[in-house]
Write a structure and sequence with these properties.
Mean pLDDT: 87
Shape: globular
Number of helices: 1
Oligomer: single chain
Strand order of the largest sheet: 4-1-7-8
Largest sheet: 4 strands, mixed
Strand content: 35-45%
Distance between the termini: 43 Å
Low-confidence stretches: 11-17
Order of helices and strands: HEEEEEEEE
Structural class: alpha+beta
Radius of gyration: 15 Å
């Protein structure tokens, strides 16, 4: 019984990871970002040329200091979000 519970837990964790968005930074600069989920805002950053896996399942990502429409994007569970030329887009 304990093995069944452990296997179920592992599968559940893997499923959450499968249903989570990625954030790729294709620019040559680091960006400070905010990840907004419900009423929680998390401050983070993404280095140049890197990808953050499993950033969220449903959230909004904002580039700090950019209040334009391209500096903020709503993210779904399986989206791949790209920062290119300082703009957030869905791949």
């Amino acid at each position: 019984m304990k093995k069944v519970i452990n296997i179920s837990l592992i599968l559940a964790i893997l499923a959450v990871g499968i249903l989570a968005a990625k954030l790729k930074n294709t620019d040559s600069v680091k960006y400070d970002i905010q990840i907004i989920e419900s009423s929680t805002t998390t401050n983070s950053s993404i280095e140049s040329g890197t990808t953050i896996e499993n950033i969220c399942s449903e959230c909004e990502i904002k580039i700090v200091g950019d209040d334009s429409e391209t500096g903020r994007i709503k993210v779904g569970k399986d989206d791949v979000i790209v920062i290119k030329d300082g703009k957030l887009t869905k791949e």
